[in-house]
């Protein structure tokens, strides 16, 4: 018998697919006690989510199969219980929250109904469930709780939706809460709030929390212990602080080393010339002002990072600069010519100078086109750039430039990893030899180690080819490593604009300070200090 | 919501007027109605008198205007062959077709939702394979063939059911059964596809993590989300039935709008043809409006 709340022993899970058997989880063991927070840290494909799904009986079988191991919860092996017995445990004793609360809340039922349902399926009378739902929604800090119960998920913000998920998960006062990337889709300030809420609720209820994350910062903020997974195996486990400072496994060390935000900051030269001068850009969407007097200069061969939370207008700005959307007023001088009033024929010629790389390469690359077709399409549109006879050689050259092999040209996007796909998207942007590339959250969807490689690639292109970048991001440490200048946006306005050192080392505006304070540092010691500073700031 | 209904009604009014224009001028293109109404040996004075009486000497636009006015009062003129107002011929036939369509679609919808959902729950399972195969056969079966075979087997061979007519419940079984097959096959496939994606969604995972029972996951959580594309296809199929299941109605001698339309075309009874066209067009407009309102009812994100 065991005294631990949860103990996983020698768990192995495999998936049988057309391509063969995938050993998603191999001989994994860990345990969790009451009142403790354990983080499973790993990149995509590490098996961290599959391990958690095994606890909740959420693995689809087939194609999945648990080949060996035990999942001991309160001394009982869950893997030997009937589906019905596990359903009774799910939601009442073990609860789970997920990464993207919008897709994990049912869009067609109001949130009051969904929260009450957790209790009703476990035998609570409806009237009691409804009053309890009200208490929970109030507890997780949703404004106007009574009205909120009758609203639908799409009527809430991302942070509120995750609070509602938490309310739903905690309805039956579970002993164990599994949180699968609970803050990955959220803004930094909201992330900090949600993690604090989880921490508070854990203090109140004494539950064990199993948090699955790819983010060292989240581990540093919340976890007592950490288990590091790679390729289905546990490579390292221990107290968070010890693992961070004395990692023994090379993978852990690589992961810690790849964490952004520790390199030397750029020191942009003052002599560079502006290639793009943006003045007083205003954009209204049906009564909502998305951009409100945005002005900045972008220097040739430099990177301007645009940071801000969702709704700050940073993506709108990108769309407007590329004329994917029209500004209401303002000017954007590209080499002295106004992009906003340019006739279509001139705009067509200039488009090749301005390229864009999007957040999700899975969506931005047409799945039915080969890499060769994706990259060479630009030359079909602008035929004067390159004669058809040279396309093949140039595609090969571009692939090498972004760190891929020329023989990959005939493959299709689904045959690549996420990081490789983003390299293809970059190669596609480079095909027209642009002077400016707008990256809209171009590395946000990538694993930390891949992120570092892509950033290094972009910085190399900037140096060797003199390309200027507008780098839109919500992730401050990445910005710190890559940007020359930083522009902080909030609600459509520019709050602060300066060199990367000015903004990171001596932020002037309270909003910038709050953003920086909300960011999570991978070092548990630094993060502890930062948390205290943040709480002090909130208290002041 | 009410402004949406107004807007849609206005748009439909425009298409209805367009339809009237086409129908009116096309029927005039087929020649002088006098030739149709009067015996071939009628003297010229009689023809002249007939034209005067029916306003056929007025300019075409004036005639069209008068025709529009009549239509608004549901006056489609007199049936040539039956010596009664066209509308009195069409409305009863339309009501027969409406009943046939409503009964068929109600059965199809209920059955297809249950079968498609269960097939989607265990993709590749034995139930799924049977359901997929049968629905594919159903969706591909030509209804005139099924109708004739059904008569041969159940009416002639076994003698269980009447071949045609509408007198008793037994009379309805063959037409409804034959009309059922194709939409059923089609809608099962749509429900299955839509449910497969709904069942692999995040909110279903959440429901499983909450401990919700399988049946409630399928029919409460997933189904309502999966219904939007299904509703579209149901509307499409129902519209086809409302138009009159011409072949099936003819084979079973069912006195519906489809059979009436064919008979009237063969008899060149234009007033009746025009009336059937306008009445079914109106019915299909109302049904499309109901479908749009059902969307909003099912999905709170859709607001008009």
TrEMBL record, chain A:
<dbReference type="GO" id="GO:0005524">
    <property type="term" value="F:ATP binding"/>
</dbReference>
<dbReference type="GO" id="GO:0016887">
    <property type="term" value="F:ATP hydrolysis activity"/>
</dbReference>
<dbReference type="Pfam" id="PF00005">
    <property type="entry name" value="ABC_tran"/>
</dbReference>
<dbReference type="GO" id="GO:0005886">
    <property type="term" value="C:plasma membrane"/>
</dbReference>
<dbReference type="GO" id="GO:0015833">
    <property type="term" value="P:peptide transport"/>
</dbReference>
<dbReference type="InterPro" id="IPR027417">
    <property type="entry name" value="P-loop_NTPase"/>
</dbReference>
<comment type="similarity">
    <text>Belongs to the ABC transporter superfamily.</text>
</comment>
<dbReference type="InterPro" id="IPR050319">
    <property type="entry name" value="ABC_transp_ATP-bind"/>
</dbReference>
<feature type="domain" description="ABC transporter">
    <location>
        <begin position="8"/>
        <end position="256"/>
    </location>
</feature>
<keyword id="KW-0067">ATP-binding</keyword>
<keyword id="KW-0813">Transport</keyword>
<keyword id="KW-0547">Nucleotide-binding</keyword>
<dbReference type="GO" id="GO:0055085">
    <property type="term" value="P:transmembrane transport"/>
</dbReference>
<protein>
    <submittedName>
        <fullName>ABC transporter ATP-binding protein</fullName>
    </submittedName>
</protein>
<dbReference type="InterPro" id="IPR003439">
    <property type="entry name" value="ABC_transporter-like_ATP-bd"/>
</dbReference>
<dbReference type="InterPro" id="IPR003593">
    <property type="entry name" value="AAA+_ATPase"/>
</dbReference>
<feature type="domain" description="ABC transporter">
    <location>
        <begin position="276"/>
        <end position="516"/>
    </location>
</feature>
<dbReference type="InterPro" id="IPR013563">
    <property type="entry name" value="Oligopep_ABC_C"/>
</dbReference>
<dbReference type="Pfam" id="PF08352">
    <property type="entry name" value="oligo_HPY"/>
</dbReference>
<dbReference type="InterPro" id="IPR017871">
    <property type="entry name" value="ABC_transporter-like_CS"/>
</dbReference>
From TrEMBL, chain B:
<protein>
    <submittedName>
        <fullName>ABC transporter permease</fullName>
    </submittedName>
</protein>
<dbReference type="GO" id="GO:0055085">
    <property type="term" value="P:transmembrane transport"/>
</dbReference>
<feature type="transmembrane region" description="Helical">
    <location>
        <begin position="144"/>
        <end position="163"/>
    </location>
</feature>
<keyword id="KW-0472">Membrane</keyword>
<keyword id="KW-1003">Cell membrane</keyword>
<feature type="transmembrane region" description="Helical">
    <location>
        <begin position="100"/>
        <end position="123"/>
    </location>
</feature>
<comment type="similarity">
    <text>Belongs to the binding-protein-dependent transport system permease family.</text>
</comment>
<keyword id="KW-1133">Transmembrane helix</keyword>
<keyword id="KW-0813">Transport</keyword>
<dbReference type="InterPro" id="IPR045621">
    <property type="entry name" value="BPD_transp_1_N"/>
</dbReference>
<feature type="transmembrane region" description="Helical">
    <location>
        <begin position="240"/>
        <end position="258"/>
    </location>
</feature>
<feature type="domain" description="ABC transmembrane type-1">
    <location>
        <begin position="94"/>
        <end position="291"/>
    </location>
</feature>
<dbReference type="InterPro" id="IPR035906">
    <property type="entry name" value="MetI-like_sf"/>
</dbReference>
<keyword id="KW-0812">Transmembrane</keyword>
<feature type="transmembrane region" description="Helical">
    <location>
        <begin position="9"/>
        <end position="29"/>
    </location>
</feature>
<dbReference type="Pfam" id="PF00528">
    <property type="entry name" value="BPD_transp_1"/>
</dbReference>
<feature type="transmembrane region" description="Helical">
    <location>
        <begin position="270"/>
        <end position="291"/>
    </location>
</feature>
<feature type="transmembrane region" description="Helical">
    <location>
        <begin position="169"/>
        <end position="191"/>
    </location>
</feature>
<dbReference type="InterPro" id="IPR000515">
    <property type="entry name" value="MetI-like"/>
</dbReference>
<dbReference type="Pfam" id="PF19300">
    <property type="entry name" value="BPD_transp_1_N"/>
</dbReference>
<dbReference type="GO" id="GO:0005886">
    <property type="term" value="C:plasma membrane"/>
</dbReference>
């Amino acid at each position: 018998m065991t005294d631990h709340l949860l103990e996983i022993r020698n768990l192995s899970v495999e998936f049988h697919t057309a391509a063969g058997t995938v050993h998603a989880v191999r001989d994994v063991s860990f345990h969790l006690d009451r009142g403790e927070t354990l983080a499973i840290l790993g990149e995509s494909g590490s098996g961290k989510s599959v391990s958690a799904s095994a606890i909740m009986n959420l693995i689809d079988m087939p194609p999945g199969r648990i080949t060996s191991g035990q999942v001991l919860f309160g001394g009982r092996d869950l893997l030997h219980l009937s589906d019905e017995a596990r359903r009774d445990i799910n939601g009442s004793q073990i609860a789970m929250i997920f990464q993207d609360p919008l897709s994990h809340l049912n869009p067609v039922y109001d949130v009051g109904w969904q929260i009450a349902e957790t209790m009703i399926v476990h035998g609570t009378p409806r009237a009691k469930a409804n009053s309890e739902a009200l208490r929970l929604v109030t507890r997780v800090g949703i404004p106007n709780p009574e009205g909120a119960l009758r609203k639908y998920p799409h009527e809430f913000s991302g942070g509120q939706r995750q609070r509602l998920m938490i309310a739903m998960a905690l309805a039956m006062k579970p002993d164990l809460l599994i949180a699968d990337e609970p803050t990955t889709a959220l803004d930094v300030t909201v992330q900090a709030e949600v993690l604090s809420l989880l921490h508070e609720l854990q203090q109140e209820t004494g539950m064990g929390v199993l948090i699955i994350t790819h983010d060292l910062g989240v581990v540093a903020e919340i976890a007592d212990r950490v288990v590091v997974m790679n390729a289905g195996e546990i490579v390292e486990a221990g107290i968070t602080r010890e693992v961070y400072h004395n990692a023994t496994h090379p993978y852990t060390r690589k992961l810690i080393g790849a964490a952004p935000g520790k390199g030397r900051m750029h020191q942009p030269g003052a002599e560079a010339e502006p290639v793009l001068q943006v003045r007083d850009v205003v954009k209204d969407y049906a009564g909502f002002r998305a951009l409100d007097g945005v002005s900045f200069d972008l220097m040739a061969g430099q990177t301007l990072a645009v940071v801000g939370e969702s709704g700050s207008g940073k993506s709108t700005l990108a769309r407007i600069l590329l004329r994917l959307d029209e500004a209401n007023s303002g000017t954007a001088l590209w080499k002295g010519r106004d992009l906003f009033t340019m006739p279509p024929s001139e705009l067509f010629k200039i488009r090749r100078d301005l390229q864009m790389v999007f957040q999700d390469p899975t969506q931005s690359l047409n799945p039915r086109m080969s890499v060769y077709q994706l990259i060479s399409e630009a030359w079909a549109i602008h035929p004067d750039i390159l004669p058809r006879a040279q396309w093949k050689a140039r595609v090969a050259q571009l692939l090498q430039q972004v760190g891929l092999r020329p023989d990959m040209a005939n493959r299709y996007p689904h045959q690549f990893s996420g990081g490789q796909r983003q390299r293809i998207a970059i190669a596609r942007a480079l095909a027209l030899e642009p002077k400016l590339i707008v990256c809209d959250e171009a590395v946000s969807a990538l694993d930390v180690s891949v992120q570092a490689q892509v950033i290094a690639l972009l910085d190399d292109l900037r140096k060797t080819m003199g390309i200027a970048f507008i780098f839109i991001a919500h992730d401050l440490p990445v910005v710190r490593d890559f940007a020359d200048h930083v522009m902080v946006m909030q609600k459509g306005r520019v709050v602060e604009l300066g060199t990367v050192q000015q903004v990171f080392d001596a932020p002037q505006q309270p909003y910038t300070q709050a953003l920086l304070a909300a960011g999570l540092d991978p070092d548990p010691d630094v993060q502890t200090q930062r948390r205290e500073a943040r709480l002090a700031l909130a208290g002041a | 919501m009410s402004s949406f209904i107004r807007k849609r009604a206005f748009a439909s009014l425009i298409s209805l007027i367009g339809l009237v224009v086409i129908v009116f001028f096309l029927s005039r293109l087929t020649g002088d109605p006098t030739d149709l109404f009067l015996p071939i040996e009628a003297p010229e004075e009689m023809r002249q008198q007939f034209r005067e009486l029916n306003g056929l000497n007025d300019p075409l636009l004036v005639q069209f205007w008068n025709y529009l006015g009549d239509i608004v009062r549901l006056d489609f003129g007199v049936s040539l062959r039956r010596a009664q107002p066209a509308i009195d011929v069409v409305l009863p036939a339309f009501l027969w077709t409406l009943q046939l369509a409503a009964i068929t679609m109600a059965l199809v919808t209920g059955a297809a939702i249950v079968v498609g959902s269960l097939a989607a729950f265990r993709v590749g399972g034995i139930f799924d394979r049977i359901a997929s195969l049968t629905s594919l056969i159903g969706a591909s079966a030509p209804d005139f063939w099924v109708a004739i075979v059904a008569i041969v087997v159940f009416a002639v061979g076994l003698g269980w059911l009447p071949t045609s007519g509408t007198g008793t419940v037994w009379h309805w079984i063959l037409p409804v059964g034959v009309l059922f097959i194709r939409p059923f096959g089609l809608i099962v496939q749509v429900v299955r596809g839509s449910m497969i994606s709904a069942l692999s969604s995040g909110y279903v995972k959440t429901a499983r993590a909450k401990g919700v029972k399988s049946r409630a996951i399928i029919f409460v959580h997933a189904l309502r989300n999966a219904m939007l594309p299904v509703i579209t296809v149901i509307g499409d199929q129902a519209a086809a039935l409302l138009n009159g299941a011409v072949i099936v109605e003819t084979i079973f001698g069912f006195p519906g709008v489809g059979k009436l339309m064919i008979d009237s075309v063969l008899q060149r009874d234009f007033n009746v043809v025009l009336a059937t066209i306008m009445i079914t067009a109106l019915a299909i407009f109302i049904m499309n409006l109901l479908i749009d309102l059902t969307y909003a009812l099912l999905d709170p994100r859709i607001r008009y």
